[in-house]
Design a protein that fits this description.
The protein contains six helices and 15 strands. By secondary structure, it is α/β, with parallel strands linked by helices. It is globular.
């Protein structure tokens, strides 16, 4: 019988331009998180490199590679499920923003490529075009743990509610979004989007940001967060490097879904959500 509770650790890593230093810091914090009792540990988007289109080609790796080898070893050494944030991945001459997941035996059990590329232009505030260097992924990814099924996506993907709805229909009780919102969209939308996805789908939503570096060309908002199925923030970081711990209570997911049974009240005679993605 699956446990009704498990502990998650969201690692808000301070990322530098030194890849080796990033990997060493990440490894240390994964061990610290495991020592704190975490069963599942998650890293931020682009944990091995600065976030920026000019950096993606320089820091990109094949999978397996230096960064994912570190993740596999860290998962195995610490006996945790490990969501490796994301890294720039090179495959077949294309670059992707890719998240990998390892089980406590250090085995790669999931790989997700960011589906919705971050292409925005907010006049006078921020312009960013991931599509200048990255290609989008073409599938959605879940992975199984002894606790529950988990859905995985990256940053900008959180703005697309259909993705979260499909993950919910696939049986997920937790969604994880490694993400690096910025100083414009972060204060406006970061928490709001997480609470919306959690409330709409009556599950836990975790987001994992890099720590804020005011000197970086792209300044992350920080505030890694866990939201429960009632839409409440149950754990939240500041903007500096830290580990956020929280219990994920799966019985509470069931309680909320039973109390407000929206999944059984949808009007399939009026509207329909279709899952056409590739696994």
């Amino acid at each position: 019988m699956a446990a009704s509770k498990f502990k998650i650790a969201l690692v808000q890593l301070f990322v530098t331009a030194n890849k080796s230093e990033n990997l060493a810091r990440a490894s240390k914090l994964i061990s610290q998180a495991a020592g704190g009792g975490a069963n599942l540990v998650a890293l931020p988007e682009c944990f091995n490199s600065p976030y920026g289109t000019k950096y993606f080609p320089e820091y990109a790796e094949k999978i397996p590679g230096e960064s994912t080898n570190m993740l596999a070893k860290a998962a195995k050494d610490n006996k945790v499920f490990l969501v490796g944030g994301s890294i720039p991945e090179e495959d077949g001459g294309k670059l992707y923003n890719t998240s990998t997941v390892f089980n406590p035996d250090g085995e790669l059990i999931a790989k997700f490529r960011k589906v919705h590329l971050f292409d925005i232009d907010v006049p006078g505030k921020i312009r960013f075009q991931e599509s200048e260097t990255l290609s989008p992924g073409s599938g959605l990814v879940t992975f199984d743990t002894p606790y529950c099924k988990v859905g995985l996506a990256i940053c900008y993907d959180i703005r697309f509610p259909e993705l979260a709805q499909i993950y919910t229909r696939r049986g997920c009780k937790l969604l994880l979004y490694p993400g690096a919102f910025n100083m414009t969209t972060g204060p406006a939308h970061w928490e709001l989007l997480q609470r919306g996805r959690a409330l709409d789908n009556q599950l836990y939503v975790g987001t994992i940001s890099p720590a804020r570096d005011e000197k970086a060309s792209y300044v992350a908002w920080g505030h890694s967060t866990l939201v429960n199925p009632w839409g409440e923030v149950v754990a939240k970081a500041g903007h500096e490097e830290e580990i956020v711990y929280s219990d994920v209570d799966l019985s509470y997911v069931d309680e909320v879904r039973s109390s407000i049974p929206t999944s059984n009240q949808r009007r399939a005679d009026i509207y329909k959500l279709q899952d056409v993605s590739q696994n």
